[in-house]
Design goal:
The protein has one domain: Rossmann fold (3-Layer(aba) Sandwich). Helix content is 40%, strand content 17%. The protein has a six-stranded mixed sheet with strand order 3-2-4-1-5-6. Helix 2 crosses helix 3. The chain is globular. The two termini are 31 Å apart.
Length: 187
Amino acid sequence: MRHLLLGLCLLLALAPAQADEKIWNLLRGGGQVLLIRHASTDPGVGDPDGFKLGECSTQRNLSAAGRQEARRLGELLRQQKVPIGAVVSSPWCRCVDTAQLAFSRVDKRWSALSNLFGRSGNAQGQIEALRPRIGAFGGKDNLVLVTHGSTAMALTGISPQQAEVIVLTPRGGERFELAGRVSIAPR
């Protein structure tokens, strides 16, 4: 009985590593969409009254810990040899900064990735713009989309941690499926 329990514990301990390796292999092969929630921010929810997208000083921005998280996420993806193609970000500074710190670039700012917190009336239009971009993606590298928790939730039904990656596999048209998740912090 003791050997059986030891074997079961070993099997359970190995299962997450095998699942992680499956995701890493999938990402190394390219063709996936990495939907990333921005890294940790200064305390608060939403943005201060009167914030302006073009002025980072008026927004809730990355904290020192968040800047470190973004760098660690980029380093993890580089260590795992994940090929990165286009890096597209929400126009909010915390998303742009996350992308810049993780990937050293932002190729495009896209309003479809904008924050939906307190703006739920925008959800349908943003989701209608995101679905075909994700579903029809067919690049050799992986597409990176840096967004907000509220937008990820509206699109996938998942509320990711800050700096967490939701890996989506395109299936054509507006269809995609959840392939897995990558986090720099334990869940």
